[in-house]
């Protein structure tokens, strides 16, 4: 078999210069090569990732992230060089690659090749971000970056960036973030640097685009997605506390549970204030996962997800320790004119819920 290096290719000394045109910086754009004294474009049928990597290295732009078509950086004008570059990918410049006349194709400027190098800094289009997953407030982070939706790499992501995304999407605060499985793609984004106080991801430092296959992608959960509910009492404002995680409901262990924690739950459910409630005889333990334990709210939080805990699924509890919460909203929609502690005590006794906890 003939080797491409010997029989199919020759050195290409005729190309004297190279550039990336019409990009947002010198490290992205339409591939243009200078042959003797004339600039021309390269047909995308004659250009591959190896040649792109060599060109990026030659331009001091890092490594190639993606090879794209004319829809990215527009159509060029003038000559179209049809030569097929034969690069291994580790050359320091295109002059070290060979060229071949095999596989030449008739091209127009609609097929001009473009390259994005890792050293390129693309503007984040209007700072647009979305979460691709179960709901608007949970899922894999995607940003509109250079006119396409791009996944975000986990390697430089932290709680500050997650907080900004949740705030921008009106999804409350960041509950947590993790890495999703590796998948292929034509370019991912990395390098966001947020303080955590920005209102918009576009106000953070400018990221760069990298190869998708080298890292996990960011998945975040915002408090706006994480519902809580009280079940088992026949009403919405009293019952066994359950929280949703990864699409399934689970209970909360009563280790370290106190009035401050209950106050936050009642506030989040818009059920008034927490009442001290002894677990009624009719209480039924859950048969779902135990999601939370060691919850430690200060009492002034607006959501349970702002409180520290042992983490999802970390506990040494049984369902006999499931949290039961009663809120003052259980009383109903009666007018609170002249309502006082004695009235509340009567209601608690009537409901077989122990004494008032206020």
TrEMBL record:
<feature type="domain" description="SRCR">
    <location>
        <begin position="129"/>
        <end position="223"/>
    </location>
</feature>
<feature type="domain" description="SRCR">
    <location>
        <begin position="228"/>
        <end position="328"/>
    </location>
</feature>
<keyword id="KW-0472">Membrane</keyword>
<feature type="domain" description="SRCR">
    <location>
        <begin position="18"/>
        <end position="118"/>
    </location>
</feature>
<feature type="disulfide bond">
    <location>
        <begin position="87"/>
        <end position="97"/>
    </location>
</feature>
<feature type="disulfide bond">
    <location>
        <begin position="266"/>
        <end position="327"/>
    </location>
</feature>
<keyword id="KW-1015">Disulfide bond</keyword>
<keyword id="KW-1133">Transmembrane helix</keyword>
<dbReference type="GO" id="GO:0016020">
    <property type="term" value="C:membrane"/>
</dbReference>
<dbReference type="InterPro" id="IPR001190">
    <property type="entry name" value="SRCR"/>
</dbReference>
<keyword id="KW-0812">Transmembrane</keyword>
<protein>
    <submittedName>
        <fullName>Scavenger receptor cysteine-rich type 1 protein M130-like</fullName>
    </submittedName>
</protein>
<keyword id="KW-0677">Repeat</keyword>
<feature type="disulfide bond">
    <location>
        <begin position="253"/>
        <end position="317"/>
    </location>
</feature>
<feature type="disulfide bond">
    <location>
        <begin position="56"/>
        <end position="117"/>
    </location>
</feature>
<dbReference type="GO" id="GO:0005737">
    <property type="term" value="C:cytoplasm"/>
</dbReference>
<keyword id="KW-0325">Glycoprotein</keyword>
<feature type="domain" description="SRCR">
    <location>
        <begin position="335"/>
        <end position="358"/>
    </location>
</feature>
<feature type="disulfide bond">
    <location>
        <begin position="194"/>
        <end position="204"/>
    </location>
</feature>
<feature type="disulfide bond">
    <location>
        <begin position="43"/>
        <end position="107"/>
    </location>
</feature>
<feature type="disulfide bond">
    <location>
        <begin position="297"/>
        <end position="307"/>
    </location>
</feature>
<dbReference type="Pfam" id="PF00530">
    <property type="entry name" value="SRCR"/>
</dbReference>
<keyword id="KW-0732">Signal</keyword>
